[in-house]
C-alpha cells in the first residue's frame, strides 16, 4: 500500500500532536489513525469503488487528511478543493469526471459522501487503475484562462518522503489544493511533525498563531510577506521561534527579500520552486537575501534535471504529472517540461525573471513586469503594485501599472507624478508605465498571486 510507511510512522508517533486545528483543538497521530480507519469504513458504506475519481472538499486538518489517505489506500484519484476554490468545485468535478464528492468540511465525523457528476472515465485514470496506484489531480489557478487538471501518480509524490527528514512545527499556510501545500503536508506527516492550521490567513492572525504555537517553519508567498511587513504584525508578536521561511508561487522582489531578511534575522529564507505539472522540487537558496537558487539535481532523490532553452527553463523529473485531463501535453518528446519561466543562469544556479507569457513587447523591446514592479515597490507609500501590458496602435503595447497606496487618500495625480519621477533614471523610458491606475482594492488573489491585467 502506497501510504503504508506513513501509517507505520503515525503508529510510532502515538499521542504526539499531529494537527493543531483551526479552532485550536488538537488531534494526535493515534487519533489520526482512527480517523483514517473511520473514513475507510464510511467510503465502504457509501460504495466508493477502488480506483474511482473522488473530489475531496476541505482544508488542512485531521478530517480532510484522513479522507485523503483513506482514498489513496483504495487507489482513488483524489481531486482536492480548498475553501477559496469552492465556487469552482462544480467545474472541477465535471472536468475531473468525479464519481464521488467527499465533503470533509461538513463538520460530520465521517464526512458527507455523495455521488458526483462523473464516471471516473479518462485514459489517465485508466492508466492509474491498470497499474493499481492512486492519483492526485491538481487544478491550475486559471488566472490566464480555463483551469487545467494535472493528473499525478501519487506513489511518485509519496516516494519522495520515504527517507527520513526533519521534524519542524509547521504552519499550513499554503492551500490544500496547491501542489506546494500537498508537498508540505506530506513532508510533515512523513516526519510525524505537528501541523498548525490557520483559521484565516491575515498577517495579524498568522503572526499571532506563530507566536502562540511556537511555529518553526512558515511556507508562504512574497505577496503575504509584503502585506505582513506593511501591517507591522511581525513587530506586535514574538516570531523568534521561526527557523525557516519558504516562499514561492510568484516573483520575489529583491527589495522585499532584503526587508524580510532584516525583519526576521533568525530565520533562514528559502526560495522554493515547483508547478502543478512537475510537483515541488527541492531547492537551496544561495543565501537568505539572494534570489539565486539551486533546484532539483540528484540530491532531491527523484533525478530532477533542468536546462535552459532560448532563455526558458525546462525540467525533467520523476515527480512530473502523467498529463492533463483537458489540455495537450506540455512535455517535449524526450520528457522535458517547458515551464514558460524566463531565467538567468550562474553556474549551477538560476534566477527567475518572470513568466514568458507576462512579457510586454513595447515596440520590439521586452519588458518584464516583475522588474518594473520591483522598482515601483521601492517607492515611498506604495503598498502593492501589479504591472501588465495594454494594447497600443503604434508600439503594439505599453506598460500599465495598478498601484495601491498605504495612504488610501493619496491623490491619484500626485501618485502618478511621484511614480514617474521615482522611476526616471532607474528604468529605461520604455519600461516606465504610460498608464498608472490608483486603486483601493487588493492586488493579490485569495491564492496570494498578483492580479495582473
Automatic annotation (TrEMBL):
Pfam families xref list: AMP-binding (PF00501), AMP-binding_C (PF13193)
Single GO MF annotation: acid-thiol ligase activity
Coiled-coil ranges (or none): none
Annotated SUPFAM superfamilies: Acetyl-CoA synthetase-like
Domain AMP-dependent synthetase/ligase span(s) in chain numbering: 12-84, 136-283
CDD domains xrefs: AFD_class_I
Source organism, top-level taxon: Bacteria
Domain AMP-binding enzyme C-terminal: 371-441
The protein's name: AMP-binding protein
Source organism of this protein record: Halovulum marinum
Amino acid at each position: 500500500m502506497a501510504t503504508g510507511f506513513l501509517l507505520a510512522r503515525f503508529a510510532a508517533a502515538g499521542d504526539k500532536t499531529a494537527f493543531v486545528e483551526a479552532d485550536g483543538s488538537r488531534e494526535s497521530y493515534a487519533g489520526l489513525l482512527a480517523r483514517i480507519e473511520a473514513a475507510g469504513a464510511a467510503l465502504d458504506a457509501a460504495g466508493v469503488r477502488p480506483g474511482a475519481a473522488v473530489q475531496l472538499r476541505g482544508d488542512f486538518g485531521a478530517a480532510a487528511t484522513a479522507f485523503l489517505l483513506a482514498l489513496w489506500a483504495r487507489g482513488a484519484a483524489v481531486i482536492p478543493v480548498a475553501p477559496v476554490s469552492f465556487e469552482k468545485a462544480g467545474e472541477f468535478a465535471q472536468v475531473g469526471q468525479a464519481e464521488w464528492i467527499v465533503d470533509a468540511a461538513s463538520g460530520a465525523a465521517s464526512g458527507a459522501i455523495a455521488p458526483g457528476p462523473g464516471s471516473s472515465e479518462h485514459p489517465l485514470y485508466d492508466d492509474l487503475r491498470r497499474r493499481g496506484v492512486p492519483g492526485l489531480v491538481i487544478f491550475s489557478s486559471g488566472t490566464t484562462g480555463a483551469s487545467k487538471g494535472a493528473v499525478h501518480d501519487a506513489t511518485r509524490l509519496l516516494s519522495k518522503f520515504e527517507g527520513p527528514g526533519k521534524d519542524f512545527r509547521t504552519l499550513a499556510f499554503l492551500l490544500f489544493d496547491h501542489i506546494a501545500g500537498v508537498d508540505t503536508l506530506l513532508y510533515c506527516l512523513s516526519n510525524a511533525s505537528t501541523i498548525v492550521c490557520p483559521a484565516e490567513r491575515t498577517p495579524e492572525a498568522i503572526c499571532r498563531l506563530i507566536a502562540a504555537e511556537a511555529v518553526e517553519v512558515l511556507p508562504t508567498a512574497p505577496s503575504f510577506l509584503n502585506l505582513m511587513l506593511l501591517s507591522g504584525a511581525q513587530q506586535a508578536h514574538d516570531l523568534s521561534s521561526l527557523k525557516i521561511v519558504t516562499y514561492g508561487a510568484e516573483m520575489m522582489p529583491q527589495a522585499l527579500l532584503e526587508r524580510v531578511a532584516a525583519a526576521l534575522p533568525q530565520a533562514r529564507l528559502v526560495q522554493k520552486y515547483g508547478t502543478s505539472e512537475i510537483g515541488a522540487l527541492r531547492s537551496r537558496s544561495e543565501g537568505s537575501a539572494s534570489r539565486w537558487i539551486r533546484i532539483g539535481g540528484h540530491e532531491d532523490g527523484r533525478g530532477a534535471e533542468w536546462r535552459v532553452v532560448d532563455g526558458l527553463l525546462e525540467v525533467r523529473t520523476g515527480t512530473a504529472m502523467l498529463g492533463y485531463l483537458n489540455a495537450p501535453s506540455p512535455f517535449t518528446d524526450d520528457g522535458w517540461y517547458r515551464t514558460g519561466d524566463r531565467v538567468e543562469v550562474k553556474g549551477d544556479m538560476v534566477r527567475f525573471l518572470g513568466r514568458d507569457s507576462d512579457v510586454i513587447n513595447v515596440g520590439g523591446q521586452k519588458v518584464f513586469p516583475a522588474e518594473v514592479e520591483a522598482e515601483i515597490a521601492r517607492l515611498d507609500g506604495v503598498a502593492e503594485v501589479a504591472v501588465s501590458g495594454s494594447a497600443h496602435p503604434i508600439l503594439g503595447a505599453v506598460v500599465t501599472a495598478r498601484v495601491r497606496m498605504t495612504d488610501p487618500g493619496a491623490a491619484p495625480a500626485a501618485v502618478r507624478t511621484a511614480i514617474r519621477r521615482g522611476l526616471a533614471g532607474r528604468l529605461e523610458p520604455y519600461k516606465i508605465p504610460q498608464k498608472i491606475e490608483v486603486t483601493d482594492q487588493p492586488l493579490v488573489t485569495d491564492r496570494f498571486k498578483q492580479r495582473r491585467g
